[in-house]
């Protein structure tokens, strides 16, 4: 090559290098400016802009890693993760008993898809007995500890974290603990700022689905698209590890009667049915062979005794307030025939344990019978057709009756209980004499 040709080539290379440098500097300035109103070349980012940049970088790396791993596949879904054998799956539900009941079917669905997976349920300490009663849950971890101790969460060596109710503190701690797969709903606010790196996308309002079915949608991030019925979800909850019913509790049942539990209070967790309606229902059932057992905490018993002493004075009523621990309550509910209650834990426990369960619900969308329908083959719901007007008690606070629950009459509930009672009588007639004593 001539000297002139070498000089020309060198000049072209220098021009290309300068062009590349300019393109790089423009890209850097653009990437800096896309997170706020910054002048070109200004590198002083706010704390929020640094967080946004880190989040987008995390998403970009996740997608690149997924593409490199599954480059041969035709349909790539970088927002999903794979449920592989031996995975340790954390299932978060730090709510009350009813919330836990509607979350436990997720454990059964994961075990059905991957039997070797380990389910670590992260919940409140008082729900531990309920969680351990499920044959699909392997370990329990205290949610209060998970909210503040990243080292304790890291010691669990979780591979996947499912957080359908978006418990923020646990989500942030899981990110600090280095849980590899953290699933969140992209429709919920601040899901990126909670450190989620796998996503589902669905809304809860106006779907017409209950909480159990909505929670199942989080499993789509693991490639599981399930739409089980209420009876199937009760089976997936797997509440089979119950302790035997104690003799002192078995003695509370009157022989030869239909044993109906009434949960009169909700401890402020839901809309309540008035005590006057419960009293009228008890009077309607007095002519039948129906034993009414009032259940609840000792504090709830004190409220009922002071507010409606005539209810406990009825001859067909048995006072069982404050007599059970949670494992004992599970065994006692399983041995009863039916329960009537507002939307609170015992009605959901009864339905998933397979006995007749009637829940009384307000009409508000987030609280109604569709949203919180008791899961189970014998679960039922009564709700008002019209909900309370805006700014009424139904909106302002939980606990106590409201106009939409007052509109459900004792006669409506009485008809449902009598339908259960008549079905039991027909079953008793059809059974041989050797099995009749068990039914009664």
Textual characterization of the structure:
This protein has 440 residues and is α/β, with parallel strands linked by helices. It folds into 2 domains: 150 residues, Rossmann fold, CATH 3.40.50; 188 residues, Rossmann fold, CATH 3.40.50.2000. The chain contains 19 helices and 12 strands. The strands form 2 sheets. A 6-stranded parallel sheet has the order 3-2-1-4-5-6, with helices on both faces. It has a 6-stranded parallel sheet with strand order 9-8-7-10-11-12, sandwiched between helices. Helix 11 crosses helix 18. The longest helix is centred in the first third of the chain and has 31 residues. It is elongated, with a radius of gyration of 29 Å.
Protein topology:
Blueprint: H1 3-33, H2 47-69, E1 88-93, H3 97-113, E2 118-123, H4 128-132, E3 139-142, H5 143-146, H6 150-155, E4 160-162, H7 168-177, E5 181-185, E6 198-200, H8 211-216, H9 230-237, H10 247-250, E7 258-263, H11 275-284, E8 290-295, H12 298-307, H13 309-312, E9 317-319, H14 326-335, E10 338-342, H15 345-352, E11 356-361, E12 379-383, H16 393-396, H17 403-406, H18 410-430, H19 433-439
Parallel strand pairs: 1-2, 1-4, 2-3, 4-5, 5-6, 7-8, 7-10, 8-9, 10-11, 11-12
Helix pairs in contact: 3-9, 3-15, 11-18
Q: What brief labels describe this structure?
A:
Rossmann fold, six-stranded parallel β-sheet, disordered C terminus, 440 residues, alpha/beta
Task: Give a summary of the structure in a few sentences.
By secondary structure, the chain is α/β, with parallel strands linked by helices.
């Amino acid at each position: 090559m001539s000297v002139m040709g070498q000089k020309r080539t060198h000049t072209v290379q220098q021009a290309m290098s300068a062009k590349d440098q300019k393109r790089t500097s423009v890209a850097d300035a653009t990437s800096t400016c896309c997170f706020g109103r910054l002048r070109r070349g200004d590198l002083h980012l706010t704390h929020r802009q640094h967080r946004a940049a880190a989040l987008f970088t995390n998403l970009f790396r996740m997608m690149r890693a997924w593409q490199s791993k599954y480059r041969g596949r035709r349909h790539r879904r970088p927002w999903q993760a794979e449920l592989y054998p031996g995975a340790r799956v954390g299932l978060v539900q730090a709510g009350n008993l009813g919330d836990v009941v509607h979350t436990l079917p997720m454990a059964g669905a994961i075990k059905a898809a991957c039997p070797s997976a380990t389910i670590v349920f992260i919940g409140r300490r008082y729900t531990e007995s309920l969680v351990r009663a499920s044959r699909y849950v392997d370990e329990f971890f205290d949610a209060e500890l998970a909210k503040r101790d990243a080292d304790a969460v890291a010691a669990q060596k979780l591979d996947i974290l499912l957080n359908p109710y978006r418990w923020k503190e646990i989500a942030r701690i899981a990110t600090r603990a280095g849980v590899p797969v953290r699933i969140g709903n992209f429709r919920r606010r601040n899901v990126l700022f909670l450190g989620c790196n796998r996503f589902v996308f669905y809304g809860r309002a106006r779907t017409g689905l209950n909480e159990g079915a909505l929670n199942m949608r989080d499993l789509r991030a693991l490639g599981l698209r399930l739409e089980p019925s209420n009876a199937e979800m009760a089976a997936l909850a797997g509440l089979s590890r119950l302790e035997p019913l104690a003799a002192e509790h078995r003695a509370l049942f009157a022989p030869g009667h239909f044993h109906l539990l009434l949960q009169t209070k909700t401890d402020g967790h839901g809309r309540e049915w008035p005590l006057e309606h419960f009293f009228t229902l008890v009077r309607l059932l007095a002519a039948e062979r129906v034993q009414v057992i009032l259940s609840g905490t000792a504090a709830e018993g004190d409220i009922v005794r002071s507010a409606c002493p005539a209810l406990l004075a009825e001859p067909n009523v048995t006072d069982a307030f404050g007599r059970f621990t949670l494992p004992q309550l599970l065994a006692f509910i399983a041995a009863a025939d039916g329960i009537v209650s507002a939307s609170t834990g015992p009605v959901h426990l009864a339905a998933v344990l397979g006995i007749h369960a009637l829940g009384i619900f307000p009409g508000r969308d987030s609280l109604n019978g569709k949203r919180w329908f008791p899961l189970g083959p014998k679960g039922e719901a009564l709700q008002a057709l019209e909900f309370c007007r805006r700014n009424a008690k139904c909106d302002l606070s939980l606990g106590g009756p409201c106009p939409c629950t007052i509109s459900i009459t004792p006669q409506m509930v009485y008809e449902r209980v009598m339908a259960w009672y008549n079905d039991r009588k027909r079953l008793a007639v059809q059974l041989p004499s050797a099995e009749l004593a068990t039914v009664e």
